[in-house]
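Quarterly update, task 2.4: FE2/S2 (inorganic) cluster-bound model.
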Amino acid sequence: MKAIVECQEDVAQGVRSFALRPASDSAEFEVAAAGSHVDLFLAQDLVRSYSLYLPAAKGDPYRIAVALDPRSRGGSRHMFAHVKVGDEIDISLPKNHFPLTEDASNTVMVAGGIGVTPLMAMATRLTRLGKPWTLHYAAQARTSAAFINELQELAYASGSSVHFSFGDDPDRQRIDLPKVFACAPLDTHFYCCGPKRMIDAFVAAGEQRPSRFVHVEHFGGVTPTGSDQSFTVRLARSGKVLTVPAGRTILEVVEQAGISVAHACKEGVCAACETRVIDGIPDHRDLVLSKKERGQNQSMMICCSGSVTAELVLDL
Ligand code: FES
């Protein structure tokens, strides 16, 4: 879809929000529930996924917030240096791999840095539904943490609680993840978005809870390193049989063979390249599929995952 940057605003040090509207006056964006993200096609081979920080009802703009990452591989640097109000950007339809269970009795969220964006959307949605929530929000510094005031207002409005943990606060209380899980009722749904270290600790702390109650979303992707060893992909629709050499990805090899496959982030986070597996066992390296989905062996992200078996048969 074509979108226009309607406004942009610095919402914290190194964090900029952007509101995107349909480029055509007669068009409307699809409704996007809390937890949704869109892919922005910023330049040739530069596609980035950003969570919406507010749910979008019919006619609403899509609102995203971007943190300028000093180790940026291009996405956030491009957003800060080149994207201006009035620019036209191609974006994907919204996707949601991090849906909110709206009828949960209890919701506990854990945010790290700019990972707060989908959780801000969830807190907003739960507040509108009149449901209480708890958010633990860690950031390097108070000045670089987005949406502090908004979250406090939402918490006040809904009788919810938000706990901040800022690295530059002399009285900082670190988020005690085992305690977060231990203190919550058994029917609590838990959500975490943040850096990998935080998500790993969150998943470890929630190990005793049924996996359907523990939800995570990564905001940084994996660096596709290609497969460790060579394997074959048989493409069921085209009948082609291709060899994926060590160090290459399936996506690269398939595209080189002249077959065009939808893709965006190329780092295992957006699911644009999700492909049905007909036979064989993938070596999943993406950050999208849950343990259960991996076990079902129905699909894989071909931009970063390899193969455990000598051959994979894919629905391509
Ligand atoms: S292109 Fe985004 S997960 Fe593969």
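Highlight for this quarter: The chain is about 20% helix and 30% strand.
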